[in-house]
Amino acid sequence: MLRRPLLALIALSLVLAASCGPSFRQIQVRALSEAEYLQAEAAAKNLRGEEITNADTYLARAKTAKSKESADFADLAAAYYRVALARSSAEESANTLARAEAALAVSREHVAKYQDILTRVNANAGGQ
User: pTM for the complete prediction?
Assistant: First the structure.
């Protein structure tokens, strides 16, 4: 007796859950939009390399593939673009760090030079 209302309630909740979730088309459009945005970011930074080549290939396949494959290819393309952008950012950070370390070394040399001059001035002032 309790079975029938329970089954009806379960069926109703499944229908509501399915209708409230994002449609596959929305997921596909989101994946393509993300990949295209990352492609534009990579192009703006003039990035080249294996990751970009792979990403461009997967994005082109995503634009011509059918539904699920399209979203999968777009996700792969986005992942490759992210790797390329992360690599570029890491290289920029490494270059910035190298410049900062070089500037620090020069500053330390200047401090040592001025410390030496100060020591000589103090020695001469004390000897008079």
Answer: 0.69
